[in-house]
């Protein structure tokens, strides 16, 4: 059954996030031959339209308003409901990002619809669209279908491959008018704490440190390795609790869930609380002095040794590899 | 202040998970208050202690949920309400739970509603915003700080590591993120007092709802465990050689760099 599917293009620092392109790929599956409509919301977002076309959108619409310069649930839901009214979609896909998590349940509630959150895969099987999602902190998975109403899902970053970019494509961005008013939550200030550069939840490589890092300065070699690999730095709860780093870096059951291609755990024992946030990474490398550490049980490759010796050597080896590549 | 907390009883995910008859095996498992809801309960108690008023903890669950509600009362909540859906709803989803909670809350004139930002079992994080929307209330999710001054709330919210400072007015619904507070352990006198505090039990009938009104919009068709990972390769030999081998393996075997 062909469906019209909306995809929210989520911008950050003036660029669309990767997860929005992944959402287009998911939407193509859900559309089953129908139209995929990219939606841009913000103060001035029309210029991002071509990116959505190049990753597979069939049409792009935008709602622009000065009141949409920052995300608020009221502003964005008013904009999105105007688009929904005009386009009348049978499916909606958002990224399972801070914004997606906050906004999607409100829209689902307005539409009286179901919502499948945090999907890592979607496929057509036996006449149903089947979504796979982790449950119980990633220790189990469930397959879910929609039984009533439109197909609405948020997708976890880094799990569904985007379509190949077609750099030659471009297209019109048509404006949808919406009255944005009566915003009940007002953003007074934004304090940027997250590290510059690569976003932890979307990073392809994560270098994470635990109590074994021993101090704030101990994270420096990890940062250097992450830089060489174009990755992000993360941490275990132990390292955050010990004040070696900010809680914004915490990976685990409490904290962020990451699924990079490569996860390097340095000086992390591998408590269940931590494994819940990273055990679905594609390849896991453990570096720990204690050969009995639990982290070796989930690791694909392990080195028993002092991270302060191993990490700088790894950084040098990867540098050589990059030079030779 | 008329304060409500939405609480879920959850499987302790630090437990080993097995599957029996297509469902997560709950036999002998430990159940707890969803950890994020504990932050919500603690915050509610602190707001009440500062501003006066009453904290009511509400849970949609089964009769076993009484235990976690008693724990919330022992922490310091004033009242508990169990909406027992065991006999009425077989396979609910987030639509179901939110609809029931909103129906219960709609005439309660709450000034503040708190919940966890996500439950560690189902992991959807939908119920808070859904309930707020149905009550026509603003909401702020993943909060790490809450200050109330008259009818104004100043709230700090975690946004993927960054912080937003948000101002809104009551009534408002908020969902708790780690870092909001340190939940207290129930004290012995608290536990004794909790036994005498009111714990009301309701069913769908009492809310003028029937099963069709809350029928799930989604359905779980399969639950499975991830494939067991084979034991990894712990490298041997001189450290310098191990490092070279690792880089080589990541490049040629795993192909991730």
From TrEMBL, chain A:
Cofactor or coenzyme needed: FAD
Domain of life assignment: Bacteria
Gene Ontology terms: biological process: fatty acid beta-oxidation using acyl-CoA dehydrogenase
Co-factor binding details: Binds 1 FAD per dimer.
Keyword presence, Lipid metabolism: no
Residues noted as binding FAD in the record, renumbered to the chain: 211, 236-237, 250-254, 267-274, 288
A GO molecular-function descriptor: flavin adenine dinucleotide binding
InterPro entries (alphabetical): DHS-like_NAD/FAD-binding_dom, ETF_a/b_N, ETF_a/FixB, ETF_alpha_N, ETF_asu_C, ETF_asu_C_CS, Rossmann-like_a/b/a_fold
Swiss-Prot/TrEMBL keywords: Electron transport, FAD, Flavoprotein, Transport
Family statement: Belongs to the ETF alpha-subunit/FixB family.
Domain Electron transfer flavoprotein alpha/beta-subunit N-terminal stretches: 5-195
Record Gene3D superfamilies: HUPs, TPP-binding domain
Classification via Pfam families: ETF, ETF_alpha
Protein's name according to its UniProt entry: Electron transfer flavoprotein, alpha subunit
From TrEMBL, chain B:
Alphabetic keyword roster: Electron transport, Transport
Domain Electron transfer flavoprotein alpha/beta-subunit N-terminal: 21-211
GO molecular function, one term: electron transfer activity
Domain of life: Bacteria
One GO cellular component, as annotated: cytosol
Gene Ontology biological-process entries: carboxylic acid catabolic process
Keyword Endoplasmic reticulum (UniProt): no
Cofactors, names only: AMP
Keyword Zinc-finger: no
PROSITE patterns hit by this protein: ETF_BETA
Pfam families: ETF
Gene3D superfamilies listed in its UniProt record: HUPs
Family, as annotated: Belongs to the ETF beta-subunit/FixA family.
Subunit structure: Heterodimer of an alpha and a beta subunit.
Function: The electron transfer flavoprotein serves as a specific electron acceptor for other dehydrogenases. It transfers the electrons to the main respiratory chain via ETF-ubiquinone oxidoreductase (ETF dehydrogenase).
Protein name stated in the entry: Electron transfer flavoprotein subunit beta
């Amino acid at each position: 059954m062909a469906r019209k599917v909306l995809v929210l293009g989520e911008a950050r620092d003036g660029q669309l996030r990767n997860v929005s392109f992944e959402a287009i790929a998911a939407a193509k599956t859900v559309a089953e031959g129908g139209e995929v409509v990219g939606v841009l919301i913000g103060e001035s977002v029309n210029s991002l339209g071509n990116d959505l076309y190049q990753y597979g959108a069939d049409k792009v619409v935008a709602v622009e308003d000065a009141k949409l310069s920052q995300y608020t649930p009221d502003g964005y839901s008013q904009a999105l409901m105007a688009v929904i009214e005009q386009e009348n979609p049978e499916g909606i896909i958002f990224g399972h990002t801070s914004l997606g998590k906050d906004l999607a349940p409100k829209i689902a509630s307005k539409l009286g619809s179901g919502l499948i959150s945090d999907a890592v895969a979607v496929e057509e099987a036996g006449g149903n669209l089947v979504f796979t999602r982790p449950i119980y902190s990633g220790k189990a998975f469930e397959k879910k279908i929609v039984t009533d109403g439109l197909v609405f899902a948020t997708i976890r970053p880094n799990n569904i491959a985007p379509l190949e970019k077609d750099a030659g494509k471009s297209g019109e961005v048509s404006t949808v008018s919406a009255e944005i008013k009566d915003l009940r939550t007002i953003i007074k200030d934004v304090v940027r704490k997250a590290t510059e550069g690569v976003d932890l939840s979307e990073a392809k490589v994560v270098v994470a440190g635990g109590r074994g890092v021993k101090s704030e300065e101990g994270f420096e070699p990890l940062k250097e390795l992450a830089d060489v690999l174009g990755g992000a730095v993360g941490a275990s709860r132990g390292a955050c609790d010990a004040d070696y780093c900010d809680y914004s870096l915490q990976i685990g059951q409490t904290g962020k869930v990451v699924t990079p291609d490569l996860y390097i755990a340095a000086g992390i024992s591998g408590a269940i609380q931590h494994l819940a946030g990273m055990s679905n990474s594609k390849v896991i490398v453990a570096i720990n002095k204690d050969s009995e550490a639990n982290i070796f049980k989930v690791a694909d490759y392990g080195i028993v040794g002092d991270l302060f010796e191993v990490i700088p050597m790894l950084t040098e080896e990867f540098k050589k590899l990059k030079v030779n590549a | 202040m008329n304060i409500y907390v939405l609480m879920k009883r959850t499987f302790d995910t630090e437990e080993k998970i097995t599957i029996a008859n297509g469902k997560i095996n709950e036999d002998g498992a430990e159940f707890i208050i969803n950890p994020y809801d504990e932050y919500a309960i603690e915050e509610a108690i602190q707001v009440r202690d500062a501003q006066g008023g009453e904290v009511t903890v509400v849970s949609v669950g089964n009769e076993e949920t009484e235990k976690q509600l008693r724990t919330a009362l022992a922490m310091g909540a004033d009242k508990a309400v169990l909406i027992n859906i065991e006999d009425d709803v077989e396979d609910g989803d987030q639509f179901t739970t939110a609809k029931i909670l909103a129906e219960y809350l709609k005439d309660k004139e709450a000034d503040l509603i708190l919940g966890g930002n996500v439950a560690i079992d189902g992991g959807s994080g939908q119920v808070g915003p859904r309930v707020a929307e149905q009550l026509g209330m603003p909401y702020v999710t993943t909060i790490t700080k809450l200050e109330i001054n008259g009818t104004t709330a100043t709230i700090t919210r975690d946004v993927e590591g960054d912080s937003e400072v948000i101002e809104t007015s009551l009534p408002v619904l908020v969902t708790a993120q780690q870092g909001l507070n340190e939940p207290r352990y129930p004290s012995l006198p608290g536990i004794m007092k909790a036994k005498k505090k009111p714990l009301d039990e309701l069913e769908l009938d009492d809310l003028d709802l029937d099963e069709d009104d809350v029928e799930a919009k989604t359905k779980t068709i399969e639950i499975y465990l991830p494939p067991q990972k084979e034991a990894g390769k712990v490298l041997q030999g001189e450290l310098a050689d191990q490092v070279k081998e690792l880089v080589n393996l990541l490049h040629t075997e795993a192909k991730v760099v």
